[in-house]
Amino acid sequence: MSFAASSLLRWRQSSAHNRLSARFHAHLPTTSSSIAAFSTTAPSFFQCAAVNLNRDSSKGNFNSSSTSSNPCDNDKNKKRTGSASALFASASAILTSASIASSSSSADKPKLLSTMPPAAATPNHSKVVIIGSGPAGHTAAVYLARANLNPVMFEGMMANGFAPGGQLTTTTDVENYPGFPEGIMGGEMMDKFREQSVRFGTVIHTETIGKVDLTSQPFKLWREGEENKEQPTDTANSVIIATGASAKRMHLPGEETYWQAGISACAVCDGAVPIFRNKPLAVVGGGDSAAEEAVYLTKYASHVYVLVRRDKLRASKVMAARLSNHPKVTILYNTIPVEVKGDGKLLKSIVLQDTVTKENRTMDANGLFYAIGHVPATALFKGQLDLDEDGYIKTVPGSTETNIPGVFAAGDVQDKRYRQAVTSAGTGCMAALDSERWLEEHFPDQH
Ligand SMILES: Cc1cc2nc3c(=O)[nH]c(=O)nc-3n(C[C@H](O)[C@H](O)[C@H](O)COP(=O)(O)OP(=O)(O)OC[C@H]3O[C@@H](n4cnc5c(N)ncnc54)[C@H](O)[C@@H]3O)c2cc1C
Predict the structure, then answer these.
(1) Which residues form the FAD/NAD(P)-binding domain (predicted)?
(2) Given this model, what pLDDT does residue 3 score?
């Protein structure tokens, strides 16, 4: 089974998925009747929504309520428009949940779908949309929802290879996130993040954003599968990008079996766990990250072997010297791992290949740490947002502002240095506060 497929399966079996299914089934009658009631008055809601969306925003700020003669300006209609889109949004979330719920509900689907237009066909406007559902996205959601900004989150549907909840759904114990003295399973932690976002009113769509246009206000977003449509599926005045990153993997024979059972891509996250204590460990890579990870692991390992493909390190002189001089480190040049082996539960050895002679040998090791780079999930934004040489979104130092006013980036997608859950949550908070301030300044009447 592919990594993506196994993650999806894990997620489908997780409490998040069960909760979504339960929520769908529990709310089905109410929601259907709400949708039916909504449909009868939909045109006027849509007219107002369209008017509010299409107003001229060329007067220095983007205040969409500047046309006072518009009948949609009265409070009642504004509220109705808002609740219309909120209803569509939550209906869409429930429908999407339904579509990924167990096939036992399939008998209900045609009937349900026929009661409302597909949500993706309707442009939904929000003050702020969050793309991504890791610690950064959910922290932003909690802050924005508590500030009454009605955030809408696209949590992704195996976007970038991850289940909703992000990278932590692929790990077991998280022991370094404050507030959980006994540690917590990664998936469970992200369930809690999600619950907190929902508790304060975040509307969550289990869908991936497939295309964006950030060149003008309102920002335009297309859900995956709808990218070829002329009209966007969603619009927003502010966008928070929290799409994360993924560690590059080698896909060695045996890797699927021993991923997170000896193989890791994060020494800071996993180095201290008991299976690595006083054991020989290996790090793959020759750059600064590999050097940092290897030195970090010396605190726990009996010895650390650094596997370097070439005959020299790419790391900076300082890091290379630190590594070479460390008594618990051996650098194996011209060496790559080609297979991992174990007892079916835990990694026990690595088959190494000499890149010059092509000879293989087996080395005992209880851990293999990949330090061969990360790929930030920024393909969607190329050509629109300023990215650095490794593809990370550039933000103004000390803030989450990107080069486009109103677009903010948080979490691993803009951080190639720390890449931790708590730092992602921290920048998620910053992005929410930055976005809130920006909206207040540019859309004061909507605030
Ligand atoms: C195996 C493993 C173990 C780890 N253990 C720890 C640990 O113990 N402690 C710790 O602090 N850190 C740990 N980390 C690092 C931590 O998981 C990350 O730093 C953190 O998850 C980054 O959060 P994020 O919010 O930036 O994004 P992510 O967690 O990467 O989440 C991004 C989410 O956005 C979604 N997405 C992407 N593109 C789109 C799109 N176009 N539309 C909609 N959704 C989209 C993705 O599907 C994903 O769900 C670990 C990482 C891994 C891989």
Answers:
(1) 127-428
(2) 38
